[in-house]
Amino acid sequence: MLKKYPFYTISLIVLALVQHFVLSKLVVFGASPDILAVFIAFTSVMLGQRTGTTYGFGVGLFAGFLSGNLGLSALIGTVEGFVAGYYHVPEESYATTVKKRRMFYFASATALVAGNLLMALLNNPMAVALYIRIPALVIIGTLTSMLLTVLLYQLVLKKLQRD
Amino acid sequence: MLSFFRFLARHTAYLFFLLYCGISILLMQLQRKETLEAIRTQGLTVNASVAERLSSIGGLFALQEYNEHLLLQNARLFSRVMRQETVLRDARDRNILTAKDSTRAYGRFFVARIVDRRFSLTDNMLVINAGWRQGIDKDMAVLTPDGLVGRVTRVSENYAKVMPVINKRFKVSVVSDSSSTYGVLSWNRGSETVAHMENVPASSHLKVGERITTSDHSTFAIRGIPIGRVIRISGNKLFSDIDVRLFVDYSSLSYVLVSPDKPSAEKLEIISEEDVKTKSDMKPLGR
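The joint structure predicted for all components is written out below.
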């Protein structure tokens, strides 16, 4: 179990870099897929709400360091980790693979909605009206990120969840 | 009290959440403070340096294409420079009318990559990735903007074999820049950067440091292709022994230009007729 922490830490740092330097440039109607939120949700589902919240805060700080928005990024990461923690599947549980997958998808969707909503409410660099920001970020941002969630789960996270 | 601690232990996640939210909101409030501003500046520096490295990695993929584009551009410019140099030289010699005729021959160069090379003590050769399908023909001059590389000796569909200047069978007629001294350049093993100029009378005014180029007497190369610079003059009473440092660095050669222009066929024909008449058995492989 202890070995998992360095793995999650390194993965989150790498994904924060990928998010900042690659995925943030793939803008679809003002929103971009958020791989960091997806992995924070996965961390919460696997390691629990408290650990997920801590990871969310830490990685949010790191992402904020890169983007120049320390406080907001940390807050969004914290909220994402916390809300996804409600779908935590304990290691010793007898949950089936289907249930684990469902829990992860729910966790991811909740974290994405919460994160994007916060972003839409608290950040407005383009001076766009709220009624445009919220649908653009929450709906489109969540949908594009959910596509990424499914892809990531089928390719990588499923195997990690089994291990 | 115990029940309070139990409550805390049961709800640590909430406590952590509140603590982190508090810190985050504090950071948002203190965003404009000097310490945080310094951290943000540091973050921007890291961000910019990583982004720069990433963009340079992306640039690597386009490098091959960019390189070839530059080579083509280089070939075009080199062709123009050679033409103008010839005109200038001819104007200096008050022979402008001849210059008009001679410059007509200078056209575009083919760009080719060296795909194989054999360097031994005697028999050096290069293989380029252009053959008759690309317009390469036997006896075409191979060069770089630095100078003459060699001549095409064999051509297949997509490849051609090049005999470099640093081959003991290679010979080319050359002329010096300032004193207009003619001679024949050859390579007698030894250093790959030094060739020798033969048949230069001891009475010539050739000096150390003079630039050597191909002459009109060559049977395969157009005139004016740079070759090297005179670094040593010695010899006996009749002929001088001249060392020429070659401009082309064979150790780092990867792309070459092939000149499709050859001396006039009529001129070559008349030379070969002369050769038959005199029954010279010392026919050089190339001059």
